Each structure stands twice: as structure tokens, then as C-alpha cells.
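Exercise: predict the fold of this chain.
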Amino acid sequence: MGRITGPVCRLCRRDGLKLFLKGTRCDTGKCAFERRSTPPGMVQKRRSKPTEYGIHLREKQKVKHYYGVLERQFRTYFARAERGKGNTGEMLMSLLERRLDNIVYRIGFAPSRAAARQMVLHGHVTVNGKRVDVASYLVKAGDLLRIKNRTKSLQLVHASLSANRRDVPDFLSRSEAGVPEGRVDRLPSADDVSLPVQANLIIELCSK
């Protein structure tokens, strides 16, 4: 299955919470989830109670939609988290949070993760002085993200910073003086994940 190119607001309604897939639009009255939070599709007077498998699957789908990853990518992250030391669920969420497109979004350089992914792919972002155009690149503690000092790149970032003044998470820091840049002060933990998720349900599903 390829990347979803249709109306992404349907994903928020399907997952039952706002995933902030449309950037600043999600903070306005135009947000489709705020206007109609019922699941998409034909209206039914009575919906069947979700099965245990359905609950586990919905939790996984929610995380995939939130970070914009496909099934094969998600399986790769899960396998890596499973091989690591510590809680598998916490390691899985930490790996997803470390994606470069997510960091660019969380630090405020892009209005959405989709926009951040496009910025990275188009070469607007450097990591430790080197151009990185892979959205799934995993940042490390101490990495310095810097926007390229060219007109188009700066316009995109300044527009995002002026339109959305969301707080920068604790594991990141941002400087807007001159050319905007940000630093990964430490690796993200489970407490730094902004998505309400029950990672244990995902682990139970993927471990079967």
C-alpha cells in the first residue's frame, strides 16, 4: 500500500483524535475533526463494538498516520526497538520521534510533518553542516540542525515560525537569530511524545 494522497482529515476522524496533519488549519475553525468527529463512511445508527484485535490495530494505525510512515518502515522500527535494551514500546516511540522530518516539525520549522518531509527532501535542512535529504534519518543527541542560508529556505521557515508559535519540546532547543537553527539536546523519551498512545498494545500486536 502506497502513501495516502487523499483527504487526510479522514484519518483523524478514523483514529478518533486530532493528528495535526494539516498544519495551522488544525488550530482553526476549519478543522474537519472539530466540525465532524464521527468516523468517515456511511452513517450507521449502531456501530459494532470493536474487537480486541481492532483496538490494537487502530493504535498502530494511529501512530503510522501521525508520523507518516508506511507498514514496511514501521516494521523496521519495531524490529530495531525489539533488539534494543529497555522497554520496547518506549524505544519504538523514541525512534519515531528521532526522524528528521519529525524533528523539523517539532522544532517549528514546518507547519506539519508532511511539509517538514518535503523540506528535507528538497534539501532545505542541514545536519551538522551537511545536507541531509532523507526524511527518515535518525538524529542523535548533540546534532545541530540548520536551515540553508538561501531565500527560498528562509522564507519557508519564517512563514512557519510566524504562523505557529507552538512550544519547542524539552529535548530540543531553537535559535531564530540570523539563520534559524535547532539542536537536539538529548534523545527523546516516552514523556516527550506528543501523541497519546498505548505503545504496549502495538507491541502485543506486532509480537504475534
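Check your answer against the key: The longest helix spans residues 52-67.
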